């Protein structure tokens, strides 16, 4: 666990039409909140481990916006209203009360109440999205179009959330509503052509709140989520969740190809924008 950052969002501005959002790589937990987590919660098992490192440098001019706080503090990829992204399916909420296995993460009697949720939205969720929205607006003003690529990972097998084994590449566009069809197609084709990997479009993960909230292709803002199965890049999907150098070296060119194709499409998307 890292020292708590002074800011809930780290922003690195670039000149590309592509923005990389990283809502779940942060491990900051303020001491007052950490004291309320139980032993399981303090493991921070549901972090998107090393995703910021995996994407680092793949598209040198891309803007990045990274949440520094952990999703157990408040989940930056959940609707601040508390509305479920996946009704009638097991999932975790805006301020989770369990981990992805359904195990409690808070000490008895120390779980978040309504005041806690409101406070965490104000202190963490809202500032992160203010930073992200500002960069989306800046990039769209610069290029006439913005492509928001939301970077995620998750364990390959989590029976509480989904049956079986997750594909390596899980592309989400909320059924095609959050981006131009050409963006979804480019990502899907690149992943499908990658030897030794599996992929799906709008499977169990169709895109979280970030993708659904910002994706407005009719306004020149296109959003797509990439959920990577952690078996594609981690040595083991259990503590210490270390990156596997060989897997990473093999995966990064595929991700770079996806990002490169999206960036190259910006001109055509701009010309097609109303």
TrEMBL record:
InterPro entries: HutG_amidohyd (IPR010247), N-FG_amidohydro (IPR007709). SUPFAM superfamilies: Zn-dependent exopeptidases. Gene3D superfamilies: Zn-dependent exopeptidases. GO terms for molecular function: hydrolase activity. Keywords: Hydrolase. It holds the Pfam family FGase. This is N-formylglutamate amidohydrolase. It comes from Methylobacterium aquaticum.
